[in-house]
Here is the input.
Amino acid sequence: MRILTLASALIALATAPALAQMAPQGGASIVTHAGSVADLAAICDPSPQHPRRLESIAYCQGYITAAGQYHTAERMVGNQASPLYCLPNPPPTVAESGLSFAAWARQNPQYSNEPAIDGLTRWAQASFPCGDAAQQRGANRGTMGR
Here is the structure.
């Protein structure tokens, strides 16, 4: 079962960029994949006038969900790997996670050219650290954005 879950998460991560390709309209510059932190932040918090706002938000939420599920699968009970972050209970929604990540990315422009997954992990570690603080707030090892 674990191998099936892991394989599904990897397939989702590998195929999401191809499925989320968006064509620019009227010469507008539209981010078509989450290659960098800046790309993912733009996708997660598009302007209200963005021609593909809903598609961008859906892409962001899928990306965050897949990353969270992969993290959870890698750190299942019995696995020796420590969690990289510990979510509060209840965890934030996937929509809250996307907006929070975008805000973090704007506040941390030094990471804007890093791979998107690295920035997402940095954000999760900064927002949901493990340890004494996590235990005090009732943290769990679940996925981001339920």
User: Anything to note?
Assistant: The mean pLDDT is 79. Helices lie at 2-19, 37-44, 53-74, 94-107, 116-127, 132-136. Residues 2-18+32-136 form one domain. The chain is about 55% helix and 0% strand.
